[in-house]
Amino acid sequence: MTTVQNTIGAIFAGALFACALSGVLAVQVFLYHRRYPNDHKLYKIMVWCFWVIDTIQTTSLAVGAWNYAIQHFGDASILMDIFTSLSIATTCGACTLACVNILQGVRIYELNNRTWWTLTPHIFFSIARFGVSTSIIVELYVKRSLLAFGEHLTPLLDTSFLLSAVADVYIACVLCYYLVHSRRNVPTSTKRMLDSLIMITINNGLLTSIFSLATLITWMSMQDNLIFIALHWMTGKCFSNSQLAT
User: Fold this and answer.
1) Euclidean distance between CA atoms 168 and 122, whole angstroms
2) Angle at CA of residue 170, ends 168 and 172, nearest 5°
3) 232 near 56, Cβ under 8 Å?
4) What percent of the chain shows pLDDT beyond 70?
5) Alpha-carbon span 138 to 97, nearest angstrom
6) Less CB within 10 Å around the terminal CB: N or C of the chain?
7) Distance from CA of residue 168 to its chain's centroid?
8) What is the CB neighbour count within 10 angstroms for residue 222?
9) How far apart are CA 143 and CA 154, in angstroms?
10) Which residues contact 6 (CB under 8 A, 6 or more apart)?
11) Is a pLDDT exceeding 80 seen at residue 26?
């Protein structure tokens, strides 16, 4: 059942949590540049991309909350409408995911002695997720209604959220495997550092997988509200924060 609580309320809750995660990301960006001034240019570019995309997304969420709660205050007819600002926020989430996939691919490539064939499953998941996300985003801009959107794209959304959950688990397992493999014939201090990285990788993969599964479950069980979109926004924020954490 569509109510103010599970539409506008979900947008407000998602925007508040997203703002909190944006603050965490901003601190991580600052600390990254303080601690690693001589890091590879690719990583520096990716960090700035995360921050710029995150800022645009957070601004779009604030505008979306304004559209629903202030500009159209008391208008129940807009509860199932999808404003352009929310479509922009979803687009930013897809861009964040693309940056994360590139960074993860680089890490897998470097951890496995720069052999390209090990990237094949990762490339498959990345292209599949990007293709599905692009199709969904185009429909968001075209349909502009949650009802019309759900009628046409239920299988595509199911595929998108399921792909995200499976890919997160796969990537976490692959990174952990290569990190464990890297522990051989290294000093004890390096082993301790690698053990810490393994734990961080497992926790990050678990966190993003939980959010992806929660988004899938809320979409499949509650397609008449916007709770799944709020969770989807937070998933993108978790992706960017988890990458900077490692």
Assistant:
1) 10
2) 70
3) no
4) 73
5) 17
6) N
7) 10
8) 15
9) 13
10) 222, 225, 226, 227
11) yes
Residue 126 corresponds to which tokens in the numbers above? 């990345």
Q: Position of tokens 């502009």?
A: 144
Q: Which residues contact 39 (CB under 8 A, 6 or more apart)?
A: 32
User: How far is Cα 211 from Cα 14, in angstroms, rounded to an integer?
Assistant: 13
Instruction: List phi, psi (to 5°) of 216.
Output: -60, -45
Q: 159: Cβ–Cβ under 8 A, 6 or more apart, which residues?
A: 132
Rounded distance between C-alpha atoms, residue 109 and residue 171, angstroms: 12
Are 227 and 6 in contact by the 8 Å Cβ rule? The answer is yes
Cα–Cα distance, 210 to 151 (Å, whole number): 26
pLDDT in tens, 114-149: 666 666 777 777 777 778 778 777 877 777 766 665
Give the C-alpha separation, 242 to 246, whole Å. 7
The CB-side HSE value for 135 (13 A sphere, CA atoms) comes to 14
Cα–Cα nearest to 86, from 129, 119, 57, 109: 57
* Residue position matching structure tokens 């976490």: 172
Q: What is the pTM of this model?
A: 0.76
Give me the half-sphere count of Cα atoms (radius 13 Å) on the Cβ side of residue 77.
Answer: 1
Q: Read off the pLDDT of residues 40-56 as tens digits, 9 standing for 90 and up.
A: 787 888 888 888 989 99
